[in-house]
Design a protein that fits this description.
5-stranded mixed barrel; 27% strand; 9-stranded mixed beta sheet; 13 helices; OB fold (Dihydrolipoamide Acetyltransferase, E2P); BirA Bifunctional Protein, domain 2; single chain; 2 domains; 31% helix; RNA-binding; alpha+beta
RNA sequence: UCCGGAGUAGCUCAGGGGUCAGAGCGGGUGACUGUUAAUCACUAGGUCGGGGGUUCAAAUCCCUCCUCCGGAGCCA
């Protein structure tokens, strides 16, 4: 039993020639005369070579019996793989920390249902490790971006008294004498009063939508970052969203090369997004283009999934679509002064079939207009009295957006479904593990 | 909610009225001079999603329910 301190796999490239100790889990074990253990410790993956000549007899024996996901410590010499040049460990001693019997997720292929039931174990796979580390990098990048840009974090409540947008279905729960409370589907309405205190704010947390959506792009619980900026107009918020998106792509390209390679992500589209100005198109222009490309959409209708696909197949750059008919947008959107049928909203569509990642726009600053909209949408004025105060005491133009974290991760990793972008996905039919 | 597809070994699947329900992976035992989804041999492992029906006979055909997958709508 050695008293040598442990190192981590991520440091091994700088420790060639040294004798080190590692601890982790057996990803796979292959036995021949020389035995091979693929070890993962959370920081990376390394092959451990157990030869009869170098390892002590008990360790050599143990190496032949290791099962998938057994927890072990390994002591050995860091050397370079004779063929690949990657760091590997020539083992001197092995110790079993915790055995593992019949780990369900074997090296063969598995179906989605099985993997979802075993999500807590699926997290150990290389692919999930890579995805969730990129998610981590996005979360950190989002905070760094807004913090560095002078934003103040203003956490929004999760328990709310009513719908923020009035359209989507909400999860409800009993709340003492108030009757029902609802899980927040957006923190935006709480950011707007905040900008009058801090100028620029953002919230970043889980949001909930009880929509019965069964698509590759929907979760019932997802994370959203929502910046809000005082004195900002529609163009400002599109520029902000574009700058943030590029910042995040750059962070991933710089810091997550190993993960992108595990995912076999073609990096060219990300580099294109990073190095070009995003396209911009009004809703009206988009409808004309869609008609020219064969869609049966009519002006005044929202885009269907097919429409987004048609639009994005024509480009390899992210696309801002702005100035939508206000009929299908939220009550708080500022109308276009040049065309009152339009709202000053903008959505960012990601290329490669990922569709809407950001939705936002300029908020109505006129008290009178908002009151009309609340009435028109048949909302309860009493619920919004506090929100209306933003327009009574120094109302200013302001704008903001929301970006769905999971959709951004799905695009950057080029995943087929958002269920892999969050540790424990919540969907219509999925509440456990 | 609607439209399509699928539920057979721990996992991924084959078998589609009639003999004992099969393979690969994983597990077990053994072999094997550096393997990397290692390979090879042997071996254990099944209420064929639940219920009902047709038939001499149902994993197989019919009805129904459940679950999952893909798509639509709605959205970030």
């Amino acid at each position: 039993m050695s008293s040598q301190p442990f190192t981590e796999v991520r440091f091994l490239a700088g420790q060639v020639g040294e004798t080190v100790r590692l601890r982790g889990w057996v990803r796979n074990a292959r036995t021949s005369k020389t035995r091979f253990i693929e070890l993962r410790d959370g920081s990376g993956f390394v092959q451990c070579v157990v030869g009869a000549a170098e390892a002590d007899p008990e360790s050599y024996e143990l190496a032949g019996k290791l099962t998938q996901e057994a927890a072990i410590t390994v002591t050995g010499l860091v050397q370079q793989h004779p063929k690949t040049g990657q760091p590997e460990l020539l083992v001197k001693a092995l110790e079993l920390i915790g055995g593992s019997t019949d780990f369900p997720i074997t090296p063969k292929e598995h179906g989605t249902e099985f993997l979802m039931e075993n999500r807590h174990l699926w997290l150990r796979s290389r692919r999930q490790w890579a995805i969730l580390r990129i998610r981590h990098t996005l979360v950190k990048g989002i905070r760094d971006f807004f913090d560095g840009d002078g934003f103040t974090l203003l956490d929004a409540p999760i328990l709310t008294p009513s719908a923020c947008e009035g359209t989507s279905t909400l999860f409800g729960t009993e709340y003492f004498h108030e009757g029902m409370a609802f899980l927040s589907q957006s923190g935006q309405l709480y950011q707007e009063p905040g900008i009058a205190a801090f100028g620029k704010t953002y919230c970043f947390g889980p949001t909930f939508r009880a929509e019965k959506s069964k698509t590759r792009r929907h979760l019932t619980e997802f994370w959203m970052v929502e910046p809000e900026v005082a004195f900002a107009h529609l163009d400002d918020v599109m520029a902000l969203g574009e700058r943030m998106t590029k910042f995040l792509i750059q962070r991933v390209l710089e810091g997550r090369q190993e993960e992108l390679k595990i995912l076999e992500r073609d990096q060219a589209p990300l580099e294109t997004a990073l190095n070009t100005t995003f396209d911009r198109m009004t809703y009206t222009e988009a409808v004309e283009k869609l008609k020219a490309l064969g869609s049966d959409i009519n002006w005044g209708e929202d885009f269907g999934n097919d429409d987004e696909t048609i639009l994005m197949n024509a480009t390899d750059k992210p696309l801002w679509v702005h100035r939508f008919p206000k009929a299908f947008k939220a009550f708080y959107m500022e109308p276009d002064p040049l065309d009152p049928r339009l709202a000053l909203g903008a959505d960012l569509l990601a290329p490669e079939g990922y569709g809407e990642v950001i939705g936002g726009g300029e908020r109505a600053s006129s008290l009178q207009y908002l009151l009309e909209q609340i009435e028109h949408h048949q909302l309860s004025r009493a619920d919004y009295e506090w929100y209306l105060d933003v327009r009574k005491y120094g109302s200013v133009p302001h704008a903001g957006f929301g970006m769905g974290l999971e959709r951004a991760v799905a695009w950057i990793c080029k995943l087929p479904h958002v269920r892999e972008t969050i540790p424990y996905p919540r969907m219509m039919g999925t509440l456990r593990p």
